[in-house]
Amino acid sequence: MERMKVTKPLFTDVTWGAGGSTADLSTTIAKTMRDVGYVANLHMTCTNMGDDIDPITAIKNALDEAKDAGIRNIVALRGDPPHGQDEWTAAEGGFTCALDLVKFMRKNYGDEFGISVAGYPEGHPKAITQLTEEEANNMTAAEKGRCSMRDGVTYVCKDEDYEKELIYLKEKVDAGSDFIMTQMFFDTAVYGTFVKDCRARGITCPIVPGLMCINAYRGFMNMTKFCRTRVPESLLAKMEEIKDDVDAVKAFGVSFGIQMCKDILSYNDTKGLHFYTLNLEKVVYGILDGLGITNSASKKTDESDAKSMQAVGSAWARVGDNIKTSYGGLGTVTDIREDGTTVVLLDKWDLANGQRPTLYLRPNAYTKVMAA
What we know:
Helix content: 25-40%
Structural class: alpha/beta
Shape: globular
Mean pLDDT: 84
Distance between the termini: 32 Å
Low-confidence stretches: 310-315
């Protein structure tokens, strides 16, 4: 936290664990950030935070605690399913979506909180469809502009689903959201189209682009596969070219990030840049230096503690994450070793004496379970 002060960020995010699993820790970190001198932007989900408490009361308690601590900025999200569950289900009597949370906050707290919500330039991953060859050959121009390809298969948020996403996003804004933070993307044209589409539908609030810094080849490939993110052919080719050179990947992450930001800012409809840093600083500081936002910040970086900042062997799956194996089994990550081997405890498969099987998987042998 102290090292990050050199960038003088407008705000810093504190995420909220799947199923409300890190509710107490997230709030504690947000309080610490405020005490250190940051504006904390605390993520909060609709998921209940205890088995013995009314789910809406639990949310209100969390909001009251944040308010009392001087934390006045909340990212309203639906959230991921709890560990061990494949699908997200609403708690009985609880909220069913981020829109419910936004409405609740405005009704009960007025303007005491600044509220941001998520937007998806390529469509929410759950709204992205795997196409047949015939469907891929008959995509509209708009679908071609936001589709992605992976291993010869085409994925896209179809026009009708994309429209539903925009309608829902406007509902969240109309309910009282102050601004939108987007999902990551690597094709700036997709972001530009998304902003235009939002404006055409009467969404006038600021839209802040979410920029995933390229820190490592494996992390980049895992995350773009998981989110079915569109990756320009030139970017993918460059990443393949330098994938075995850790320093070259970071250097490219800086240069690519600088150009992305310049392209985005050229739209003249961007109020800020939101970096997904994965708790790593070298690439984002290099980008900020290149944009002239900071001066020599990259020379002050210290990633000697990088391994403690992210799960070793994976920049996406982390200890505690709920994953699905390549053959369909569900489990929870218990360890990620230095060589990338992921240790997974299988769910719903009991052996003698209540034991559960443990698997040792390669990074490409599983995917993190995605919430709807």
